[in-house]
Design a protein that fits this description.
about 525 residues; alpha+beta; Beta-Lactamase; 4 domains; five-stranded antiparallel beta sheet; about 40% helix; elongated; binds adenosine-5'-diphosphate
Length: about 525
């Protein structure tokens, strides 16, 4: 009995004895340590003094259970210390019975689990933080075990591949690399990229980091998308237990790179052609071969001058377009009167129209818009210059405008060609058509017209209906691309309609202020 008492006394746990009514009668040194009360401070008091105010029914409920002979094992709760601090405790509560097996009291063993709870809480916080990072990461993240099975994927990986997270987990890694072969959705030859797929295998086998820049991953729908990925080994106590694969969809980057390559090759071609002419003409003149043929010599000089003019125009237009696209051009926007823009553009083009024998008819409209006057005049002169250029002597070019509230019935097919959306006009808002009040400026000619299959492409860089247009008409093929860029930076739209042999109309729709 003495030994038992000494065990109780030396225990680190609190060992408390109380009556069925909850009155404390025994209190060991462990209880003093955990709760901060000495025996004299608690003896004769209710065990409820240890309850936190947020849990008023807990102790009465426990006492009721014990009275009914039901013990409680390892029940985790929060108790109140003498100093008012809350402590996490695990309770084992048993009935004390007399020789006739009647419940006559309660024994409570309380273990302070505050440290453990704190560790658990920190771990939970850390887990939550990791989860947040993985969930919000833009890159796809896959964890692969040593048997090439996917053990984890983040939402970005699932989104990119089109699978649900559950569909990917426990599947083979090749599921992503080669797509779902079971549905026979893919016609990809698996040997084609075998060496690439091996990058993950290499990581799993040799524990080295592998970087792959031109892989294709499969989607749920059987299509593939280009990725670059890094596979990093997971090492536990020096042993390879799996790999983490981080990947990103590089479709957009490849498209930009392709556009850039195409642009550079077109630009270099466009610049080389006039340079070659200048070089040839100057070479002939320098050789002295034309000394005795002044007319041919003069023609060579004319060719050199015309081509150097073209080079200057080309370089200016290329730089202008690039600056517009990269928003390096500061557009000084202010309230502009549309009639003034129209009159100014027409008067700049009047001499050229007269030279060709084309009459220019202008019907200005009095309305205001918020824009950069210089750039809008540049757009109108460009359209007028084309209209005049592609008209023959005796024809008329009209510059007119009307105010209108664009609604879906007015969005015509040409507009859809321009924005790339086919079918019902109700889809127009998707392409940014502004449904407010607009001014629709029209440049109409009776020229040669534009074939239907070119009506949209002519707004692209270096796009001309006929390859001879640049030579014969002196154009660069950049004018309409510049116009579109300017109009778009005014939240407007530009498109064209045309009938071959009859003429074309170019439309510029811009939001107005009044
Ligand atoms: P360019 O400097 O060659 O005129 P643009 O970008 O202004 O370049 O025009 C692209 C092409 O669109 C022209 O080369 C021409 O083939 C065609 N085009 C533009 N406007 C007209 C028009 N009013 N009539 C016929 N074809 C036109």
């Amino acid at each position: 009995m003495i030994r038992l008492a000494s065990i109780v006394e030396s225990s680190n746990d609190a060992i408390i004895g109380n009556t069925l009514a909850g009155i404390i009668h025994s209190w060991n040194s462990g209880a003093e340590e955990i709760y901060g009360y000495s025996i004299s401070e608690v003896k004769g008091h209710s065990i409820s003094m240890l309850a936190v105010p947020e849990r008023p029914n807990e102790i009465p409920q426990i006492l009721a259970n014990i009275t009914a002979g039901i013990g409680i094992d390892n029940y985790e709760t929060v108790h109140l210390r003498k100093d008012g601090k809350h402590i996490n405790v695990a309770l084992t509560i048993s009935p004390i019975k007399d020789t006739q097996n009647n419940v006559i009291g309660v024994s409570t063993i309380a273990r302070d689990i505050s440290d453990r709870k704190q560790v658990e809480q920190s771990l939970e916080q850390l887990r939550h933080q990791h989860q947040l990072i993985l969930d919000s990461a833009g890159e796809g993240i896959c964890v692969i075990d040593i048997f090439s099975k996917i053990s984890f994927v983040n939402p970005a990986a699932a989104k990119m591949t089109g699978y649900g997270i559950k569909e990917l987990v426990n599947n083979d890694w090749n599921f992503i690399i080669y797509g779902d072969q079971t549905n026979n959705k893919t016609n990809r030859i698996s040997t084609e990229k075998n060496s690439q797929a091996c990058a993950v295998n290499t990581t799993l086998e040799k524990g080295i980091v592998c970087q792959v820049t031109d892989e294709l991953f499969g989607r749920r729908d059987g299509t593939f998308f280009p990725v670059e990925y890094v596979s990093t080994p997971i090492l536990e106590q020096g042993k390879i237990t799996g790999a983490v694969v981080t990947f990103k969809d590089i479709t957009e980057r490849l498209a930009v790179e392709q556009m850039k390559d195409e642009f550079i090759s077109v630009v270099s071609h466009e610049l080389r052609t006039p340079l070659a002419s200048i070089h040839g003409a100057l070479g002939l003149l320098k050789s002295g071969l034309l000394n005795q043929a002044p007319t041919r010599g003069r023609r060579m000089l004319d060719i050199a001058v015309a081509n150097s003019d073209r080079l200057v125009r080309l370089v200016n237009d290329i730089l202008d377009l690039e600056r517009l696209h990269s928003h390096q051009v500061t557009m000084v926007k202010q309230t502009c009167n549309v009639s003034e823009l129209m009159i100014q553009a027409a008067s700049e083009m009047q001499p050229i129209a007269e030279k060709i024998g084309v009459s220019l008819s202008v019907t200005p409209i009095d309305t205001k818009l918020w824009g950069c006057a210089d750039r809008l005049i540049q757009t109108l002169t460009n359209l007028l210059s084309n209209a005049i250029k592609y008209s023959s002597t005796g024809k008329t070019v009209w510059l007119t405008a009307s105010k209108q509230r664009i609604n879906k019935n007015q969005v015509n097919n040409s507009h859809h060609l321009t924005c790339g959306i086919q079918g019902d006009c109700a889809v127009a808002p998707a392409c940014g058509i502004n449904y407010g009040d607009q001014v629709l400026i029209m440049v109409k000619d009776q020229g040669r017209g534009i074939p239907a299959d070119k009506i949209e492409s002519i707004f692209g860089r270096f796009q001309q209906v006929d390859a001879s247009d640049s030579r014969q008409k002196g154009g660069t093929g950049l004018g309409l691309a510049i116009c579109r860029s300017i109009v778009q930076q005014h939240e407007g739209q530009i498109w064209a309609e045309s009938t071959l042999g009859k003429g074309s109309t170019f439309f510029v729709a811009l939001p107005i202020l009044d």
